[in-house]
Design goal:
binds adenosine-5'-diphosphate; binds magnesium ion; globular; 8 helices; alpha/beta; Rossmann fold
Length: about 250
């Protein structure tokens, strides 16, 4: 089932300094439950695509259709490079924040979030403060805070780029596990080809700005494999070469 469709989307930024053409003829679909990555060079228009999907901006041309499957929730949830946790709030205070702001801190939702914390080994840290947690744990807390609002689609903007390499591999595995177990549809934008290969069902390759779609690749990895195990596989090497050539 399609949850999202971009149809011939263009986006041009207009400012006093002139026009910046960011996206041209962007067409792709996302199936419910899939993990889709968008890769492309820095400054090509990746974040712009996420802003359009979240409705923060409207396309200059073309159409975006969304199929919101859940009715009592926001369509998108965001995860950024910085976890944006509030240092003066406890872990529990942080994961409840969205629910408080949206006046959805119901018994049922609290139970849902508490269960996520228990399931993903953060419950015993619930009364600690963000600075007492490792970078990887903080990113997991940020994810649970986002999932608390039960978004139909999760947008990850270079969500792992700020972490050191070792931590990034582990956090990718953890986040992937949570996303798959909770059956979340996800779109990741990244400039890290290996990361995209390790996580995705589908990869969309963008050109330099103005971004056009150079290629779409469907990956056929065994779904039970962890991202870390996928990285070392022969299929990963082959796909890496293919994407690398496209980006040259
Ligand atoms: N608000 C804006 N006004 C004008 N230009 C912008 C704005 N936001 C982004 N851009 C330009 O659009 C292009 C694409 O930006 P962005 O989507 O952030 O790229 P990416 O996420 O791939 O690095 C860049 O050249 C950037 O400078
Ligand atoms: Mg960006």
């Amino acid at each position: 089932m399609k949850i999202l469709k971009l149809d011939n989307v263009d986006l041009t930024y207009f400012s006093t300094n002139g026009e910046t053409e960011a996206l041209k003829n962007i067409t792709f679909t996302v199936d419910s439950g899939d993990f889709v990555s968008i890769v492309g060079p820095s400054g090509c228009g990746k974040t712009t695509i996420l802003s359009l999907i979240s409705g923060l901006m409207k396309p200059t041309k073309g159409k975006i259709s969304i199929n919101n499957l859940k009715n009592d929730s926001s369509f998108v949830g965001y995860m950024f490079q910085k976890d944006n946790l509030f240092e003066w709030r406890t872990i529990l205070g942080n994961v409840y924040l969205g629910l408080e702001l949206q006046k959805r801190k119901t018994k049922e939702n609290i139970e849902y979030v508490n269960n996520l914390l228990k399931k993903y080994n953060l419950w015993e840290f619930r009364n600690k403060y963000p600075k007492q947690l490792s970078g990887g744990m903080r990113q997991r807390v940020a994810l649970i805070r986002t999932l608390a609002l039960k978004p139909s689609i999760l947008l990850l903007d270079e969500a792992f780029s700020a972490l050191d390499y070792q931590t990034r591999l582990n956090v990718c595995d953890d986040v992937y596990k949570i996303i798959k177990q909770e059956k979340v549809t996800a779109i990741l934008v990244t400039h890290d080809i290996s990361e995209a290969i390790s996580l995705s069902d589908k990869i969309i390759i963008l050109s330099k700005r103005p971004a056009t779609i150079k290629k779409e690749i469907n990956l056929t990895f065994d779904k039970s494999q962890s991202p870390l195990n996928r990285r070392g596989s022969n299929e990963a090497k082959k796909v890496f070469d293919e994407i690398w050539r496209e980006l040259q």
